[in-house]
Write a structure and sequence with these properties.
Chain lengths: 156, 321
């Protein structure tokens, strides 16, 4: 069963990577795309803990940088750290709590994009703030469906 | 408290309803050796147990990160993608192509359904426009031939690239930080970095790296993109860069003549974009942060939300002798 859960987690991540460059590009909120890869690694981090969260964050960042063909280090570090932090916080969550995970997804998204901005400051802070807030809202919207599924599939 | 010679003795008070002398009536006391603490949840990390697993993981991640970054930038120097990236793209590209086509088709269906009432009128207007453009094209072809003939009289070198490679967009922008798309043509079709990419409406961007069968295109709406441009009407010079609103024409002179509705095209300065390629239309003009120069907001001629087919111009326009 443990191997099945691991396979499910990796399948989720790969599906998010494929959808990010295709279907996700068709929807925008205030001009910003959702970041399905980031939302998925944050959900995985919340559910699996800091150790595996870091691994999924690293892998998700590497794969997303391949799609974009730019800044691999910034993607890997920002996603790893955000998933790690959420993994540390997530182990203290009561499973029946629905509000806290969504709030953490929002905060985790802001954290990841802020770290990315610090490592690759190609734009102004104002653009970074708008981008992070929009992606945070997207993370919450997708997290409403993604987090319960992740929890159900990956926890006994 | 009586002295106790071994660790088994304790100072526990006498139990109610009995004593140690009469164990039958003594309530059962928990044996310390049989109390088993509950195991920690399976998904948690036991922080109290000292181990080197997190350190090993951290070291592995840092080394992997450095390796991947090094390979990426080393490959980028030659305009290629690194080996790990190629391996991922081989697996991901076919799926992306299929999904993108499906997504674009679905989006067009939804749009068509919404615009059903306006489609007929739009169709009539477009047919009329096509007829006008055909006439204009005939006139422009005559001017082109005349220009070519006159230039040859002046012994000026005129080499216009006529070769174009058509490509499909298989992947839309995958991040809000960078506006990059992937096309299904690569080095096998003689696509190189810095090749100019266009749509039927106008300039799209340039190729930044290539795989054997795919290439990454940096759109003009990317914040790291810069296109030397000029206003066609007044020939005011500037640089088109990507911005939150799409594109902006920056570094205009304080006395530049720029108006709403002006068409902006490439100026030919720099080593990437030949002159005369349509970029877009001015929709707003305002002063920049310093207050000394003007910045114009540009609506790109190409609709990047509906980008499905592009063509890559081969060759460059040579300069005057």
């Amino acid at each position: 069963m443990r191997n099945v859960r691991t396979l499910l987690a990796w399948t989720m991540l790969l599906t998010a990577v494929i959808l990010q460059g295709t279907l996700a590009g068709q929807v925008r909120l205030a001009g910003y795309l959702p970041d399905l890869v980031l939302t998925t690694v944050l959900c995985l981090g919340l559910v699996t803990g800091p150790y595996y969260g870091a691994v999924f964050g690293f892998s998700g960042g590497a794969l997303q940088s391949i799609l974009v063909s730019e800044s691999p280090g910034s993607f890997m570090v920002s996603r790893t750290l955000a998933a790690l932090v959420l993994g540390v916080v997530g182990v203290r969550l009561f499973r029946g709590n629905w509000v806290a995970p969504l709030l953490l997804l929002f905060v985790g998204t802001l954290l990841a994009e802020f770290i990315f901005f610090l490592m690759t400051p190609t734009t102004g802070f104002r653009h970074c703030l708008h981008l992070a807030l929009a992606e945070g809202v997207w993370s919450v919207l997708f997290g409403v469906f993604l987090y319960p599924l992740t929890q159900r599939w990956l926890i006994r | 408290m009586r002295a106790c010679a071994t660790a088994v003795c304790s100072d526990r008070p006498e139990p109610r309803g009995g004593s140690r002398k009469n164990p039958r009536f003594a309530p059962a006391l928990p044996d310390e050796q049989t109390v088993v603490p509950p195991p920690p949840p399976s998904h948690t990390v036991n922080l109290h147990r000292h181990n080197s697993r997190p350190l090993v993981l951290a070291a592995l991640l840092v080394m992997s990160c450095l390796l991947l970054v090094g390979l990426h930038y080393r490959a980028r120097q030659t305009g290629r993608v690194s080996l790990p990236e190629q391996a991922v793209l081989v697996l991901v590209t076919p799926l992306q192509g299929a999904l993108t086509r499906f997504a674009l088709a679905a989006r067009e269906r939804v749009r068509s359904f919404r615009k059903m009432r306006k489609l007929e009128a739009e169709n009539r207007a477009l047919r009329k426009q096509v007829a006008q453009l055909r006439n204009r094209n005939r006139r422009l072809n005559r001017y082109f031939e005349e220009n070519k003939r006159l230039r040859s009289y002046l012994a000026l070198n005129l080499s216009v690239p006529t070769e174009a490679v058509f490509a499909e967009v298989i992947s839309m922008p995958a991040s809000n930080w960078f506006q990059r798309v992937r096309i299904n043509r690569g080095s096998a079709e003689s696509i190189h970095p810095k090749d100019v990419v266009m749509s039927d409406a106008g300039l799209v961007g340039q190729v930044v790296d290539t795989d054997r069968h795919t290439a990454t295109v940096q759109l003009i709406t990317d914040r790291e993109s810069g296109v030397a441009a000029q206003v066609i009407r007044s020939r005011a010079q500037g640089v088109v860069v990507g911005a939150e609103t799409g594109c902006e024409l920056r570094y205009l002179d304080p006395d530049a003549d720029v108006r709403l509705g002006d068409q902006v095209a490439t100026s030919g300065r720099g080593d990437v974009y030949p002159p005369g390629l349509i970029i877009g239309e001015v929709i707003a003009v305002h002063k920049d942060r310093t207050g000394t120069r003007y910045t114009a907001t540009i609506k790109p001629a190409t609709d990047f939300t509906r980008l499905d087919e592009v063509f890559i111009r081969k060759g460059r326009q040579e300069g005057r002798r």
